[in-house]
Amino acid sequence: MTQEISLKPIEIFCGTGGVGKTTLATSRALFLAKQKKKVLLITIDPARRLKQVLGLEDKEIGALHKIDCAIFDEPNVEFSALLMSPKTTLQRMAQKSENERELDNPIVNILTRPYGGMNEIMAIIEVQYQLSLKEFDTIILDTPPGKHFIDFLQSSEKIKQFFDKSFVEIFKYMGKKFNRNEEGQKSGFLSLIVTSGIKKLLKYLEKVTGADFVEDFIEAISGLYLNRQSFLDALEFQENLKKESYSNWFLVTSVEQFKHDEAKELQTEANQFMHKDSYLLVNKSLSPFLEKWQPNDQNSELIRLRQSMKDRENKIKQLSKTVGHKAEIFFPEVLGALPQSHVKELAQHWK
Amino acid sequence: MKEDTTNSLLLPSILSSKENPEKRLFIVTGKGGVGKTTLAMAFAKYLKDSDSRKVLYNSFDQPLPEGLLKELSIPYFKLCMDTSAKEYIGKKLHSETVAGWIMKTPFFSSLFNMLPGLGHMILLGHIINMLEEDPELTIVIDSPSSGHAITMFESPLNFRDMFRTGLIVNDIDRMEDFLFKNKHLQVLIAALPTLMATQEAKDLAVELEQRNVKDPLFILNDLLHLNSAVQNSQNTNEDHSQNNDELPQFIKEKCKLELEVLKELDQSWNPIAHFSETNNKNLVTAIVHYLNHGGNPS
């Protein structure tokens, strides 16, 4: 690498599963923290490998924690870490807009379970909130693997769709009479929906799902609608991600046997969101080892093994050519068992 | 080596219709890039050729590697979330037109987008229907990723909690009976041989168990110490000490780390060798061969 990576408010680590995304993101946090930067590392991956790397407990999910880097043999260095919880984000949002009652709804509660389906959308809101506090020099985002990451990137688009024109218009129409302090709120709300043409849809829905659901559903929708500003504010985040001045992108891959195809797919999908400050991080590279290895001419099997390993490294190197990353950074495979030792060693390779 | 005998290959027996006739839906899951697709294809091919089953392959709402499937003559079917959902709602309401109309409203299409679990559940329901309609059929699914697998099995529970009564809840009960009570489902979790990856696979099994998915089979993929070239060099070393330097240090260290990881794992883990292949077709064929020979990499 020839130049330094400039510091941005946000750094995004994305990649398919098991390539060492979390470990690399943590090593980046450690590297920046050593330079006295104020760093927040957020994981929105519900699998929460970060918990394992940082030695956190389940009960510490949802709140900010100071990480003492002595666990990486760097005493007197620290950074903050957050394991995202959709529930906590929702609760804060509800408190802010004073909609705690509306959002304490069975459907909303189910949806904000870690695998309930709203993880990505709540993550956007959480990150936007942390950014708005301006307490950190940079926020490092450890994203969920592969397809989930694309869900994450598209979630603000989904928010927009969810509160799309026709939906919003219905509410606008109702908004005139829609006063949530009124006692007869729900029935008034229902009658408005009835007049607005959703009646038919709900009737069909009721057949399929049972009547209680329809009532909960309407309540959930109205609860979410009352918080629409928080959702719509989060759209700003996606716009910012596209700005070079705002973000660095790190596409993480590794040279293991099966990683190439998925990395390529993700790269193609993520490319519509990335800008030119994107870096290809190639983890677990064996190149330095392979270059030194000269098997005996007679041993055709070992020659084949080395060739297949070399082929993989070359295939991965091709990845950066198709998209034009600003730089590719190779991280040699760390031959050690513990994740903390990996973080420590990987941090040496950042510039 | 000692480790080879302690972690013997259970896979052929799990895949055998004689030994486990009730298993008819195999879902291969695990993190991205652990070789799920290659493994799922190898299992489908093995079931078809070595167990003479009527097999269909599917990859659950992600693009199918059709060229490769054709080359390997593995039969497959395609599923599309929107079509399945429309078909399902159409059946429930006794009208495809109404279903199409509902699905087209921006409100419902965005509801589907916002709740990926709903679509997943409908796809799973569609697959179960296929299996119920044809008792001869076995389906192998390459599931997108561990997170999506959890969402897929959690969705029926979530939607039952949400809907409480109605046609969908009846269907959810029927689905759960098929998968769990009648034990037609076998989940296979693949991982690469590192501490982080195997821990994550174990965590996934716990998550799945909380969602009724019991007794998954683990696969430890891409084991370098089982590679035939590595094994042969090690055997030569034992016979002729002059060849001691054949294997470079980094390979020896990687093998050592693999064995350390293996030591911590129980019988439910199936070791699969690293094959010196970069071509996907050859790789699938090598794994099928390996299964046919009870885990002999050469």
Describe the structure.
- The complex is a heterodimer of chains A (351) and B (298).
- Chain A has 351 residues and is an alpha/beta fold.
- In chain A, 53% of the residues lie in helices and 14% in strands.
- Chain A contains 17 helices and eight strands.
- Chain A has helices at 21-34, 49-54, 86-97, 100-103, 106-111, 119-133, 146-162, 165-175, 185-195, 199-209, 211-226, 228-233, 235-241, 259-270, 287-292, 300-323, 339-347; strands spanning 10-15, 39-43, 64-68, 78-83, 138-142, 247-254, 278-285, 327-332.
- Chain A is globular, with a radius of gyration of 24 Å.
- Chain A starts with 9 loop residues before the first strand and ends with a helix.
- Mean pLDDT of chain B is 86; it is low at 1-6.
- Chain B has 14 helices and six strands.
- Chain B has a six-stranded parallel β-sheet with strand order 2-3-1-4-5-6, sandwiched between helices.
- Chain B has one domain (2-292): Rossmann fold (3-Layer(aba) Sandwich).
- Chain B has helices at 2-6, 11-15, 36-49, 66-71, 81-93, 96-104, 106-114, 116-133, 146-163, 167-181, 195-209, 228-239, 249-263, 280-292, and strands spanning 25-30, 54-58, 137-142, 185-191, 217-223, 269-273.
- In chain B, helix 5 packs across helix 6 (96-104).
- Chains A and B meet through helix 5, helix 7, helix 8, helix 10 and helix 11 of A and helix 3, helix 5, helix 7, helix 8 and helix 9 of B.
